Prior knowledge:
By secondary structure, the protein is an alpha/beta fold. The chain has four domains: about 1-35; about 40-105, no CATH class; about 115-200 and about 265-365, SGNH hydrolase (Rossmann fold, 3-Layer(aba) Sandwich), CATH 3.40.50.1110; about 205-260. The chain is about 40% helix and about 15% strand. The protein is built from eleven helices and twelve strands. The strands form three sheets. A five-stranded antiparallel beta sheet has the order 3-5-2-1-4, with no helix packed on it. A five-stranded parallel beta sheet has the order 7-6-8-9-10, with helices on both faces. A hairpin with a 5-residue loop joins strand 1 and strand 2. Helix 3 (about 145-155) crosses helix 11 and helix 4 runs parallel beside helix 8 (about 265-285). The termini are far apart.
Amino acid sequence: xxxIEIGGKLLLVVAxxxxxxxxxxxxxxxxxxxxxxxxxxxxETDDPNLDLWCYDEHFVGTPDRDLRRVHPYxxxxxxxNANNDSTFAxxxxxxxxxxxxxxxxxxxxxxxxMAEFDAQRDKIVLVIGDSFGFGQGVRVAERFSHILExxxxxxxPAERYQFFNACVPGMNIKRVAKTMERYVEYFTxxxxxxxxxxxxxxxxxxxxxxxxxxxxxxxxxxxxxxAARFLAGRSSYTxxxxxxxxxxxxxxxxxxxxxxxxxKDNLGWTLTRQLLSRMKKSCADKGIKFSLVVFPVFYQLxxxxxxxxxxxxxxxxxxxxxxxxxxxxxxxGKDERDYWVHPTDFHPNSRAHREAGDFLYDAxxx
Length: 366
């Protein structure tokens, strides 16, 4: 075989590899385009007490309004997005048309006006917690607290219940406890406190607080700084795709370990237990029933990696005489994607709230 033949074959091999590489790159470019998903985006309306939290066509649920149609909100002003991504600045609402209303009362809560609550006439159930109880991504009527109120009043007509939902996104246990104190004092008579507890509620101290800044929270899908970020910034869509997935896998492993460490023998877990005990005692001293309702994180429910955390919470609650309801019993073994508000927002959707409400109706001795 002469040099010309060898050169020709080598050139053919190189050309074949180049075509293959180009085909792969085009495939990943098309995949990247097909995967374009907007995160949760916030808009201000003409009403100072009403904002809209908006999702794209991947939203799972029923919105309050479809912004592609005529709506009563007047001029919509972009406020930001869940990923703090500056590239979405001034994003047109038409891109994220599924709008959930976030109407605030005079207490800046997603709840009815205070004048509609009558503690002398009705049994007030105070619901405290963070974004899960708040109902991120679901309509007010779809929250488990609203579902429970309607069902109790329908099936127990001799009694009157009003659920006051004081949940706020981003709350930790310290702020939740202060919220409980505030509204127990406000209403003077409260039948029961339901603490909608999520696994990231405990105190974070020292290393765990530092770790949190670098981790996912299993509530939103966000990118993160790290070695993979370097590759993800290259021009190759193939490298971006693989780098992003490697990054997410590592972040998920680190986040699972972070959750577990929150419940190990450390100062943060000690302070958390002490505060839960004080909350229960404070309620007992006032004749108020106290229920600790624990949500799972909606992540890998078929082989849930945080079962031991729920067991730790359950053991503590039993020791302290705290009424404990573990919603993992309802969701374990299922497909978490069926319960997400959106592919980038892992908060419980309307189906999850409905199942939680039905479960709590039977699990709590009303």
